Amino acid sequence: FLGLRNLDVIEDALDIIERSSGIRQDMATLPLDDPATYEMLARGDSVGVFQFESEGMREALKKVRPDCFDDLVALNALYRPGAMDQIPTYARGKRNPEQITYADERLRPILSSSMGVIIYQEQAMRIAKELAGFSGAKADDLRKAIGKKNRAAMATLKPEFIAGARASGTADEVIDALWSTNEKSADYSFNRSHAACYALIAYRTAWLKANHPAEYMAALISSVMSTKDRVPFFVARCEEMGIEILPPDVNLSDHEFTVVDRKIRFGLDAVKGVGYQAVEAIIRAREDGGPFTSLWAFCERVDGRAVNKKAIEALVKCGALGST
Taking 70 as the threshold, does the pLDDT of residue 2 lie above it? Predict the structure, then answer.
């Protein structure tokens, strides 16, 4: 459910791009190695990017400096209670792979793709199987206990884990460290498939922001119009990005935010005091009789039941009748 609004934003941004360019980008075939996208994320410029827009996550991006999709998957799983303190370790391993160390050589093939850090539930399962001798079913029991924060179930598995790891020749200090990680993971851990799904939505939103900034931001602002405090927040971010915001206009604006010559035109639905039905009446009158030439003509032509005094005053105050 977290990703649903973002999927709508992606579709809306693609619609805006198609209207302006005539080209429909197929997200299913979008390459996952776009340099501009990773350069933007590595700067921590991720406001409006799914899962990556919090201040803490932006700092994590600057530490890790992602340059591939696996980094985004890892960050989605790392920026959680229990795993967050491993972000610096992942970042160091990313910058200096030759300095990554493994407490037990059998961990190398399991953890090499995650810079020596245990991140995913699948890794905990594989460690339990290969170092502690767990069966697949027993390893899955451990995964369930971790995922559901079931500490009682973990307590029953701990003696078997320790005994199995000792039997395979694992040093006691390594066993203690591995089980400690399992307990921390019970605070909050991701399976890799979940993190990958989130990372895919995140990458697509980041790609749109990096390559089609005006279209993406227009779609993003349109998606938060029901929460009026978010509109000025994202409008301010557009201005920081160098994207000009054009004022609302009864002759030019639509319901939602639109893009004109790489500038964003304010959507009438975002004007406080002007509801959806009022905007529908304005657009209908505009389509039937052409542009409004004066305030008098506007009041005469629109449906007064939908566009009442309050709505007209709001349109005047925000400058939407300036073109008349």
Answer: no
pLDDT of residue 229: 81
Q: Which DSSP category does 190 fall into?
A: B
Q: How far apart are CA 240 and CA 67, in angstroms?
A: 24
Distance between alpha carbon 70 and the CA centroid of its chain, in Å?
Answer: 15
Taking residues 171-178, what's their average pLDDT?
95
208: Cβ–Cβ under 8 A, 6 or more apart, which residues? 10, 13, 215, 216
CB neighbours of 317 closer than 8 A, spacing ≥ 6? Answer: none
* Encoded tokens for 316: 């005047």
Angle subtended by helix axes 55-64 and 87-95, to nearest 10: 30
CA distance 95 to 305: 64
Question: What is the chain's mean pLDDT, rounded?
Answer: 93
CB 138 within 8 A of CB 176: no
pLDDT at position 5 over 90: no
Is pLDDT of 149 > 90?
no
CA dist 66 → 13, 28, 173, 259 (Å): 24, 22, 32, 30
Picking from 297, 256, 189, the residue whose alpha carbon sits closest to that of residue 13 is: 256
Cβ–Cβ under 8 Å, residues 128 and 161: yes
Q: Contact 187/86 with Cβ under 8 angstroms?
A: no
What mean pLDDT comes out for the span 218-230? 88
Q: How many angstroms separate the CA atoms of 205 and 40, rounded?
A: 12
pTM recorded for the entire structure: 0.88
| DSSP β-bridge partners for residue 264 | 245, 259
Instruction: Classify the phi-psi angles of 295: left when phi > 0, otherwise alpha if psi is within -120 to 50, otherwise beta.
Output: alpha
Element (H, E) at 13: helix 4-21
Residue the block writes with tokens 């996208």: 37
For residue range 278-313, list pLDDT tens digits in order: 999 999 999 999 999 999 999 999 999 999 999 999
3-state DSSP helix/strand/coil % of the chain, to nearest 5 = 60, 5, 35
